[in-house]
């Protein structure tokens, strides 16, 4: 396949390297246009992929079979809207990011959209991307036109396993949202690795209670206990990790809070629910973000 990867951060480079190794034709797409992108990935087995690949080639984009979007949630809809008219009409766009809400922002787009959530962990260390842990990527249709692309699961599974196709991706997206609502703001506020949240079980449990209330109203059956069990599993399996939100805060970058806790609060409001614990966390992260964003302008 011919695939353009939009966003060449940790996850983007991991996909570029994996696709290239499986013989797919790939290019990167960067916001600041440049003809090449450097991909430097250390795999989980220690092997290194270090190649310069083409980037921002409009002809390649116009013939791409897939646009894989690995940007941060808040960058997605703006960037996709700019590129969508330059893709073949039936080529799907696969969104892989933390949080939810981008589908609503892209509602006017008729291009097939797929949504994915992943538990692969990759982080930047200087100029190198470390593939920290293998995981599962759940993908499924994000709009009506996206329903015909289940075959992609097999193709992508051969590239970066595991891939699971879901005719309804929303339950998997909500489960991941629940974990991000717990781990991301708490680690950013306590400035700690994920594993330290073992010491903050009351807050972890309160967040899960509130998320479960919203999920039930959204029609996804769950219980606070299920979410707490799952969140604690992820806290254990990623104990050494620095969450993406803490990483953003440390380098004073815009965070994904509006698409994580912010999305949860928006859905809660639509159901007339008040979420005091998540509202407080949202305010605290926004205050932090505003402080450094204001001082940099
Ligand atoms: O997705 C993550 C993130 O850091 O954004 C978790 C699951 C919390 C792992 O760190």
TrEMBL record:
Which organism does this record belong to?
Answer: Buttiauxella brennerae ATCC 51605
NCBIfam families noted in UniProt? apbA_panE, PRK06522.1-1
Cross-referenced PANTHER family: 2-DEHYDROPANTOATE 2-REDUCTASE, 2-DEHYDROPANTOATE 2-REDUCTASE-RELATED
**Domain of life here?**
Bacteria
Domain spans labelled Ketopantoate reductase C-terminal:
168-289
UniProt protein name: 2-dehydropantoate 2-reductase
Q: Which reaction does it catalyse?
A: (R)-pantoate + NADP(+) = 2-dehydropantoate + NADPH + H(+)
Top-tier EC class: oxidoreductase
Q: Name one GO cellular component term.
A: cytoplasm
Look up the record and name the pathway of this protein. Answer: Cofactor biosynthesis; (R)-pantothenate biosynthesis; (R)-pantoate from 3-methyl-2-oxobutanoate: step 2/2
List its EC numbers: 1.1.1.169
Principal localization reads cytoplasm
Q: Which GO terms describe its molecular function?
A: 2-dehydropantoate 2-reductase activity; NADP binding
Which BP terms in the Gene Ontology apply to this protein? pantothenate biosynthetic process
Give every Ketopantoate reductase N-terminal domain span.
3-143
* Similarity-based family: Belongs to the ketopantoate reductase family.
Q: Which Gene3D superfamilies match?
A: N-(1-d-carboxylethyl)-l-norvaline Dehydrogenase, domain 2, NAD(P)-binding Rossmann-like Domain
What are the alphabetically sorted keywords of the record? Cytoplasm, NADP, Oxidoreductase, Pantothenate biosynthesis
The compartments listed are:
Cytoplasm
Lineage per the UniProt record = Bacteria, Pseudomonadati, Pseudomonadota, Gammaproteobacteria, Enterobacterales
Concerning InterPro entries, the annotation shows: 6-PGluconate_DH-like_C_sf, 6PGD_dom2, ApbA, Ketopantoate_reductase, KPA_reductase, KPR_N, NAD(P)-bd_dom_sf
């Amino acid at each position: 396949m011919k695939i353009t990867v939009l966003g060449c951060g940790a996850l983007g480079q991991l996909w570029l390297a994996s696709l290239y190794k499986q013989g797919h034709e790939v290019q990167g797409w960067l916001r600041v246009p440049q003809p090449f992108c450097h991909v430097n990935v250390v795999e989980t087995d220690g092997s290194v992929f270090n190649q310069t690949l083409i980037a921002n080639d409009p002809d390649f984009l116009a013939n791409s079979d897939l646009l894989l979007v690995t940007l941060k949630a808040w960058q997605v809809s703006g960037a996709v809207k700019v590129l969508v008219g330059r893709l073949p009409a039936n080529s799907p766009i696969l969104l892989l990011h933390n949080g939810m809400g981008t589908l609503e922002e892209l509602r006017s787009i008729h291009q097939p959209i797929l949504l994915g959530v992943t538990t692969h962990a990759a982080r930047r260390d200087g100029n190198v991307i470390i593939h920290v842990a293998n995981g599962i990527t759940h993908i499924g249709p994000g709009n009506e036109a996206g329903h015909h692309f289940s075959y992609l699961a097999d193709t992508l599974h051969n590239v970066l396993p595991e891939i699971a196709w879901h005719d309804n991706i929303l339950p998997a997206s909500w489960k991941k949202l629940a974990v991000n609502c717990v781990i991301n703001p708490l680690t950013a506020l306590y400035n700690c690795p994920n594993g330290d949240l073992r010491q903050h079980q009351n807050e972890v449990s309160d967040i899960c209670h509130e998320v479960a209330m919203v999920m039930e109203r959204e029609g996804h059956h769950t219980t606070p206990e299920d979410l707490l069990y799952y969140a604690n599993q992820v806290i254990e399996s990623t104990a050494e990790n620095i969450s993406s939100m803490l990483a953003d805060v440390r380098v004073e970058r815009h965070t994904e809070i509006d698409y994580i806790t912010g999305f949860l609060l928006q859905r809660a409001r639509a159901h007339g629910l008040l979420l005091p614990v998540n509202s407080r966390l949202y305010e605290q992260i926004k205050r932090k973000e505003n402080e450094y964003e204001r001082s940099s302008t």
